[in-house]
Each structure stands twice: as C-alpha cells, then as structure tokens.
Design goal:
This protein is an alpha/beta fold. The protein is about 45% helix and about 10% strand. It contains 18 helices and twelve strands. It has helices at about 20-35, 55-65, 80-90, 105-115, 130-140, 195-205, 220-230, 260-265, 270-280, 295-300, 315-325, 330-340, 345-355, 360-370, 385-390, 400-415, 420-430, 440-455; strands at about 5-10, 40-45, 70-75, 95-100, 145-150, 165-170, 175-180, 185-190, 210-215, 240, 245, 310. The strands form five sheets. Strands 1-2-3 form a three-stranded parallel beta sheet. It has a three-stranded antiparallel beta sheet with strand order 4-5-8. A two-stranded antiparallel ribbon has the order 6-7. The chain starts with 5 loop residues before the first strand and ends in a 7-residue tail after the last helix.
Length: about 450
C-alpha cells in the first residue's frame, strides 16, 4: 500500500523567498496534493539573530499568492528540547565529538592536505585529544564545535574506506554518496547553536516526513543525512533533488537579488499563474505555456520531466508568458481587479484590449485612451481624409459591424486601402500607431468621441 506523502518546505525567515525557492515549494505542493498528502511549512529559524517574524509573514503571504496553503506551520525554536535530546543521544553513543580548531587552523589543515594531493576532509585529530588536553584548550578560552562521526570505516576511524549511502532519487534516479569522501559534518557551532542538519533531521523524523524534495545543491549532503537518520534509529525519507534556477547570467539565485523575489515579481505586475508556471516548467521537458488554472499546472508536473542541468530564469521570457496568459484570461477572472483600478468597460473592453497588455495594469492606459482625451500627430495630407471619414461615419452608436461598413464606404469614396486607409484612422482615434482591433474599440469610444477626434484635425463635414 502506497504511503500518503508528507512533505515540508523549510525556508529560513532571514529574507524574502525568490523564484528558485518558489520552484521548490511548488514541486512539494504539487507532489503531495496530487496524492492527497500533507504540506508542512516549517521555518528554519534556529538562527534567531537573523530570523524575523516580518520575513516569516512575508514568506507565508508569498506562498498564499502562489496558491500554496500549508496544512501545518512549524517553528523550530519551540522544538529546542527535541534537538538537545537528539544531540545527547548522539554524544552518549560516541557519535558526536568535540573539536576545538579555529577556522584559520582548519584552513591550514585543508591547504596542507591539498598540497599533498589528498582530499581536504577533516582528519579527525580531535578524537585523539585527552580530557586534559581539552581542558587546557578550554582554559585558553576556546569552546568546542561538535562533529557527527560518519560510519565510514571498519576498525580504524583514521583509515576511512569507501562506504556508500544509496537512494532512488525522485528526479535523478539511482544516486550514491561515498561517506569516505566527506568530512564529519559540524552539527553544533562553538556558541552552542545548531546548524541546519540536526534540527532538520529531527523534525523530519518527528513530523513523519516521507519525502524530502529540494534543490540539487543538497545532493552531497544527503549521504551524511541518511547516516544521521540511521544513527537516530529512523528510516530515511525518500529524497528528490530538482535542478536549480539560475539568473540570466548563469549565476545562482539568492535572497540578495531582490528583483527576483516573489514579492518583487508580484509588485512588478506579473500574474500569479505566470510566475508559478514559469517557475515550475522552465528547465523541464514540458513546454512553458499559458494555463487557465493552477490545477492544470499541477497536472503537468512530473518529476521525471525535470532536466538535470540548471535552468535559466529569464524575466523577458516571463514577461512574454504573462502577455500570453492575459490574452486568454476570461473577463470573470479580472472583473474585480479592473474595477479596483477604475475601469468600468465590462467584457467588451476586456476582450478588446487583452491581447495588447504585458501587465493587467496596462488596461488603465487603454481605458484612458477610450474615455479620455488624446493627442495625435497627423500628416497634413490626411486632414481632408479624416474630414471625409467623419462625414461617412454611419448614423447611431457604433456596434460590432460599424467598422467594416464604415471603412468600406471610406475606401469606395477615397480609393484608399490598406495602411493608407487604416493608419490615419488609428492615429486619430487612439493617438497610437498600433493597438487593439479598431472594430472592437470603436463601439467603446462611441460616436461623439469618434467625431470629436476626427474633427480635431480639420473641420468635420458630418
């Protein structure tokens, strides 16, 4: 019987999440919701000096905007006793040992190992220290950091031997890490605070997490984490490591690049579904395409379709997707938002302008063109033409058939056709050389404004 998935998205509330973080959150969300599972938002906030409630609140708001609504929310500081208990269990088992080297000393050790052609892994020299030697170091004012003793040897811990930890990765297939190629990871800092690894593993065990879905920058950490699950007497979850998003220069995304934060993209006017779709489908075998609903996007998510190579996030491509998405959105989906920015043109207005917008806010500019005053640069040769056009405008308010009948009458009388016929009319009616179909705009502009705009460039004869 298949296990109902429980996943977690564990951001650190030390800044705003970016589109790369959104990719991980969406992958977790789609994976678990497609199977009726549980999504846990778990703030990795053991770093209390940099974590803030304001960032945590913003992360929750960003996830909600993306369409992600966690089933549970957890904060790590409330679970400090569980981490302390796990650390004591490891210490009692001899699997967590104190080390007193400074950062500078460790750098020198690694440099010597590289010079000798050896991998720069920690040599476990702290295991040879006596209680008296440790006491002397503490008397100097040093405090210990604590390393997890990797099970990568047979009899002699100073002679590591190839020891693989294997897993079937949701995205990458069969994977393995040789624990002998790694340093014993530091789990507790010199100030007594925990690094990410131990709280994360303890939380995953206590919360029953079945699948850990994250970026492939964590692949090398997985071997040590599997060993830590085993040391704590727990079955490791299933792991999945997806490819990362890079910026347009091929550099990794970070919280420092605020322009790609979810809040910044939202403030820039991108549609929620455009951001979610681009973050989900870029760098996969599925074409990036405008979709009508988040459910449709979820149906396209398939871990097997995700490429192994990094994917480039292009804001220009996102803008193009946003344009395509707006062009197919129904009026009902935007009615309230249009009203909020002072547009009361109804469905005819929306259908007319939606193919000509990169952002929904662009609709305000077209509404001003329809209802306000405009200025146009009309050639002198076209002044008489516009007077003729005004005289030939059919009586009554324009409807969907008016444009064809009107331009046909103008063509018959003036002999103009194509661009020489349509461009002066477009300039006079909108002030622009391109835009929505005039057949759709004309009923919105209305007869009085149409005549006034034509007559502004010469005395109308109607």
């Amino acid at each position: 019987m298949a296990t109902t998935p429980i996943v977690r998205f564990a951001p650190s509330p030390t800044g705003e999440i970016h589109v790369g973080n959104a990719r991980t959150a969406l992958y977790n969300w789609f994976f678990t919701k497609s199977a009726g599972g549980t999504f846990i938002l778990r703030y990795d906030d053991t770093d209390q000096a940099r974590s803030t409630d304001a960032f945590a609140d913003q992360i929750a708001a960003d996830l909600a905007w993306l369409g992600i609504h966690p089933d549970r929310v957890e904060r790590q500081p409330a679970r400090a006793n569980q981490y302390d208990a796990a650390a004591k269990k490891l210490k009692d088992a001899g699997l967590l040992y104190p080390c007193y080297e400074t950062g500078e000393e460790l750098d020198r050790q690694r440099a010597r190992q590289r010079a000798r052609g050896r991998p720069p892994v920690y040599d476990r020299r702290a295991l040879n220290q006596t209680d008296a030697e440790r006491g002397a170091l503490e008397a100097e004012g040093r405090t210990a950091h604590w390393r997890f003793f990797l099970p990568n040897f047979s009899d002699d811990p100073f002679q590591p031997q190839r020891t693989e930890r294997k897993w079937d990765d949701l995205f990458r297939g069969a994977q393995h890490i040789d624990l002998a190629s790694m340093s014993d990871p530091v789990l507790i800092r010199q100030d007594g605070s925990f690094l990410y690894t131990l709280p994360s593993v303890v939380d995953d065990i206590d919360m029953g997490v079945t699948h850990v879905i994250r970026g492939d920058d964590h692949v090398t950490n997985t071997g040590a984490q599997i060993a830590l699950f085993e040391a704590l007497g727990a079955q490791p979850p299933t792991f999945g490591h997806h490819n990362l998003l890079q910026d347009e220069q091929g550099e990794g995304l970070s919280k420092r690049k605020k322009a790609l934060s979810i809040r910044a993209l939202q403030d820039a006017g991108y549609e929620q579904l455009a951001v979610a779709t681009f973050a989900t489908l870029i760098g996969t075998a599925v074409a990036v395409q405008p979709l009508a609903t988040t459910d449709a996007l979820q149906a396209l998510f398939d871990p097997q379709s995700v490429n192994k190579a990094p994917a480039r996030f292009s804001e220009s491509e996102l803008a193009h997707l946003n344009t395509r998405l707006l062009a197919q959105m129904n009026f009902a989906d935007v009615a309230d938002r249009l009203k909020a920015i002072g547009i009361d043109g109804g469905e005819p207005f929306w259908l007319a302008v939606r193919p000509n917008m990169q952002r929904l806010a662009d609709a305000r500019g077209w509404w001003d063109i329809v209802t306000g005053s405009i200025s146009a640069d009309i050639d002198a040769d076209d002044v008489n033409f516009l007077q003729t056009a005004a005289r030939l405008l059919p009586e009554g308010e324009p409807d969907s058939d008016t444009w064809k009948a009107w331009t046909g009458a103008i063509r018959d009388e003036t002999g103009r056709k194509g661009k020489p016929l349509f461009m002066p009319l477009r300039l006079a009616l909108t002030g622009l050389s391109s835009g929505p179909e005039l057949a759709q705009l004309l009923p919105l502009i209305g007869r009085p404004r149409t005549l006034a705009r034509l007559s502004a460039h010469g005395r109308a004869e109607n």
